[in-house]
Amino acid sequence: MWGRIAGSLALVIAGSGALALDLPRAPTGADYAQHDAQQVRLGWQLFYDPILSGNREVACATCHHPAHGSSDGVSLGIGDGGIGLGPARRADPDNPPEQRIPRNSPALWNLGAQEFTRMFHDGRIEVDPARPGGLRTPLEGDMVEGFASLLSAQNMFPVLSPDEMAGHYSENEIAQAVRQGRITGPGGAWDLIAARVRAIPDYAEGLVALHGLTGAEDITFPQISDAIAAFVAVEFRSDTSPFDAHLRGEGDLPEAALRGMALFYGRAGCAGCHSGPFQTDHSFHARGVPQIGPGKAARFERHRRDTGRMRVTGQAEDAFAFRTPSLRNVAHTAPYGHAGAHATLEAFLRDHLDPVAALPGYDRAQALLPDMAVEDWAILDDPAELAAIKAAVQTPPIPLTEAEISDVLAFLDSLSDPAALAGRLGVPDAVPSGLAVPRP
Q1: Is the pLDDT of residue 4 over 70?
Q2: How crowded is residue 179: how many other Cβ atoms within 10 Å of its Cβ?
Q3: Residues 67 and 193 in one domain
Q4: Same domain, 114 and 146
Q5: Which run of H or E residues covers position 204?
Q6: CATH number of the domain that 277 lies in?
Q7: Is the bond leading into 418 cis (omega within 30 degrees of zero)?
Q8: In terms of domains, do 256 and 227 share one?
């Protein structure tokens, strides 16, 4: 058949001739850190436990559920102030949210792999050995040390977000601490969350035993976060897709997927950004993706734009650039884009081929938005804002025929990993706090 040795040139039949493709290597165990089974089990329970949220109503799994490919199945979700899960989630009439979560909930696949050194759509938290704790984060000097990994540190930023998990203003002690800028130290938001966990015997006993602590009073917030990170790394590891089997010489792909692979790693140029074993260069690119919803702004700002990486670097050349997502299980992580503007992978791909031409005709019916009395279209209704998004795109259009689009989609489907999608630990029947586990 075709050569499948990692990193080697592979010959693939495409059309009437043979093309040499530089395929990535398949992931190996060396790409991942090892994790203690007891730590993973504690993290499993904490991931599904709303105890970490200010009003005890939102778990990590609310926005990152296996039923929705480790995302939430909507364009822009509702965290605090919502009821239900996925597309059925709605605003709580007794405690309505102030706004939608500004960005689409990213999938969690392979975030435990060691090459993932930047997190979030704008990379605002990343490995930086020159900084205290080895991380660059929006908290800078207020960022506590002691997190075992970047994944551990990023996992816990949502607990500080009023829209995601903390709640608003004085609704609870955590929201109040966030509002007052008390994040670290005794009585800070992270310590208040840790105190809740310390008070639950199953968590306290497990963490004390795991870390050899004297007592529950020694449990720290980073230890809680480390457990969640260990669970995410193990549960959402994905490296046994049909494409992986193909790379390892353990299976063949359907002809359509092989043609799509030839396009992806060849003339279509997809691998220019979606490179490496996890189909991402971990960099940032302006691709003219529609901006919907509240945008990314500080509370004192009055705009609705989201300039992406520029908000982190302050550099004009980073305007509207967002992190290249991994494409693992991409067929199961709809909607797509940093604002979830495209409901289907096909729709996203079609617009992605020529985003400058596609943006003015974007079909707003694609947005999957829970019903809320908020403004979602301010940017798309503003000609100047639309022109700025288009002007940032530096890549030329990619011409593909209808048949070629179908082939690329077939290849992307070959990145679906049945074992990972089925889950390893799955959804627990209950969690130690006794609070409701998020379920479809």
Answers
A1: no
A2: 16
A3: yes
A4: yes
A5: helix 201-211
A6: 1.10.760.10
A7: no
A8: no
In sequence order, which residues have a C-beta less than 8 Å from that of residue 82 and are 6 or more positions away? 57, 58, 62, 89, 90, 91, 92, 97, 370
Exposed / middle / buried, residue 399 (Cβ in 10 Å: 0-12, 13-18, 19+): exposed
Phi/psi at 83 (nearest 5 deg)? -130, 135
Answer yes or no: is 20 within a domain: yes
In a domain, 295, yes or no: yes
State the total domains in the chain: 2
Residues 224 and 296 in one domain: no
Q: Which two tokens stand for residue 113?
A: 């792999």
DSSP string for 347-384: HHHHHHHSHHHHGGG--GGG------SS---TTTT-HH
For the ranges 145-154, 328-337, 347-356, 421-430, which has the lowest average pLDDT? 145-154
Residue 120 CA to residue 237 CA, distance in Å, equals 18
DSSP state of 343: S
**What whole-number distance in Å separates Cα of residue 421 and Cα of residue 440?**
16
d(CA 224, CA 377): 39
Co-location of 310 and 192 in the same domain: no
Distance (Å, whole) CA 184 – CA 190: 6
| Residue among 79, 296, 104, 86 at smallest CA distance from 168 | 79
Tokens 């040795």, residue? 5
Domain that holds residue 215: 37-71+106-236
Quick one: 162 and 179 in the same domain?
Answer: yes
Predicted model pTM: 0.94
Contacts of 401 (CB under 8 A, 6+ apart): none
**Backbone torsions φ then ψ of 16, nearest 5 degrees:** -100, 0
Cβ atoms of 340 and 368 within 8 Å: the answer is yes
Give, rounded to a whole angstrom, the gap between the first and last alpha carbons of the chain: 43
For residues 423 and 66, the answer to whether their CB atoms sit within 8 Å is yes
Shortest CA distance to 277 belongs to which of 8, 24, 31, 21? 24
Q: Are residues 268 and 280 in the same domain?
A: yes
Question: H-helix or E-strand containing 62?
Answer: helix 60-63
What does the pLDDT look like over 250-279, one tens digit per residue?
999 999 999 999 999 999 999 999 999 999
d(CA 51, CA 55): 8
Q: Is residue 425 part of a domain?
A: no
DSSP 209-249: HHHT-SSGGG--HHHHHHHHHHHHHHHT----SHHHHHHTT
